[in-house]
Amino acid sequence: MREAAVISLLALAAILNANHRAHSEGAIAEGIAPGGIAKGYELSISVNHPTTDDARAAALAECKKKSEKVASGAAPDSGNAKARERCEVVGTFSKKCAALALDPRMEHREPGGRRATPR
Question: Would you say residue 67 has pLDDT above 60?
Answer without folding.
Answer: yes
